[in-house]
Amino acid sequence: MFVDSHCHINFSDFDGESDALVARMAAANVTHAMCISVTYPEWPSVVALAERYANIYATAGVHPDYEDIEEPTVASLLERARHPKVQAIGETGLDYYRLQGDLEWQRERFRTHIRAARECGKPLVIHTRSASDDTLRLMREERAEEVGGVMHCFTETWEVASAALDLGFHISFSGIVSFKSAADLRDVAKRVPLERMLIETDAPYLAPVPFRGKRNEPSYVPHVAAAIAAVRETDAETIGRATSQNFFSLFRVEP
């Protein structure tokens, strides 16, 4: 059993393919997937997939990469979080890699998501890139540990992972962990407690070996498990079972 804890299968990359995509998931023993919101205009397409398929779930949030769009408010996030298939708040966080200049708006957006998550009691899906110090600082200041969540597509150091674990968060690994250049990340994957680990595709991005460079999809998530299993000297099925149970527990999803 495997679960894709983070994907964007509502994107245009998958137009007209949803039935085939879900069938390929089943063939690969991928039982569930979380489709992640990145802007308000595309949120209806996220929820539509969750409504159509019993094993697809959704989030509500606005990604830190997007400037000059409708800003989320606590009230608007809470409204979306009331949908019965919305299991988390996000994708949110900080990204100083793609954007430069005065990014206080990004930090305020992150604070808004954390406050909404605390109010509705749902976990956070957090993105951080080149911003780990501020990400952890805001998580502490806004008491993100009250709801917990996941540091998705983790690529930071063990020190950052350890700090997030101390705040009650899970660490999720994507196909990057299978890349030849990702030895340091595999060391982190070896050290994260299995009961606090998730796996994901971040589809359509970051396809794992042996599909690197191609469009990613949820049916490829067992290859992420296999890469982690190799460094932990176990098998992919063990990683799959543990991370699936973690997914069900964190996001309050029935197996």
List keywords for this structure.
255 residues, TIM Barrel, alpha/beta, eight-stranded parallel sheet, 17% strand, 39% helix
Task: Describe the SSE topology.
Layout: E1 2-7, H1 18-27, E2 30-35, H2 43-52, E3 56-60, H3 74-81, E4 86-95, H4 104-120, E5 124-129, H5 132-141, E6 149-151, H6 158-166, E7 169-173, H7 183-191, E8 197-199, H8 221-232, H9 236-250
Parallel strand pairs: 1-2, 2-3, 3-4, 4-5, 5-6, 6-7, 7-8
Helix pairs in contact: 3-4, 4-5, 7-8, 8-9
Record field, number of beta strands: 8
How much beta, percentage-wise?
Answer: 15-25%
Q: Determine the fraction of residues in helical runs and give it as a percent range.
A: 25-40%
CATH class: Alpha Beta
Overall pLDDT score:
97
Q: What's the structural domain tally?
A: 1
The spatial strand order of the largest sheet comes to 1-2-3-4-5-6-7-8
What is the CATH topology descriptor?
TIM Barrel
Judged by helices, strands and strand pairing, the structural class is alpha/beta
Low-confidence stretches: none
Radius of gyration, whole Å: 17 Å
Shape: globular
CATH superfamily: Metal-dependent hydrolases
Order of helical and strand elements: EHEHEHEHEHEHEHEHH
Reported CATH architecture: Alpha-Beta Barrel
Largest sheet: 8 strands, parallel
Terminal CA distance: 10 Å
Task: Note the total helix count.
Answer: 9
Could you walk me through the main structural features you see in this protein, from its secondary elements to its overall organization?
The protein has helices at 18-27, 43-52, 74-81, 104-120, 132-141, 158-166, 183-191, 221-232, 236-250; strands spanning 2-7, 30-35, 56-60, 86-95, 124-129, 149-151, 169-173, 197-199. It has 255 residues and is of the alpha/beta class. It has a single domain, classed as TIM Barrel (Alpha-Beta Barrel). An 8-stranded parallel β-sheet has the order 1-2-3-4-5-6-7-8. The longest helix has 17 residues, at 104-120. The chain starts with a strand and ends in a 5-residue tail after the last helix. The model has no long low-confidence stretch (mean pLDDT 97).
